[in-house]
Write a structure and sequence with these properties.
Low-confidence stretches: none
Structural class: mainly alpha
Shape: elongated
Strand content: under 5%
Number of strands: 0
Largest sheet: none
Helix content: over 70%
Amino acid sequence: MPTDEDIRLALRLRALADALLVPVATATGLPPELVQGFVEGTTTGAVAAAKEPTKKRKVSAYNRKYKAAFKRVSKKYKKKNGEWKKGGFKSAVKQAHKEAKK
């Protein structure tokens, strides 16, 4: 339930928006309702577009093979503590691509 302060703040913001939109409407020669509708429509459209979920890409067969090969090969190019050996990552990538092509 909105409080009295929330309502007063909403009314102030509405008055400020109207004060900004009226000069724009008179300068452009458009009716104030049209300008207001345009501004409200573009902002709500932008919010809706930002919330739209993105589609996930389909993983290719080659990518699946490469991923498995990389996991298999990477063990050879790592130290006991899990860090990469010098030049190990680059070598692992090359080897995994080579195996995935087969």
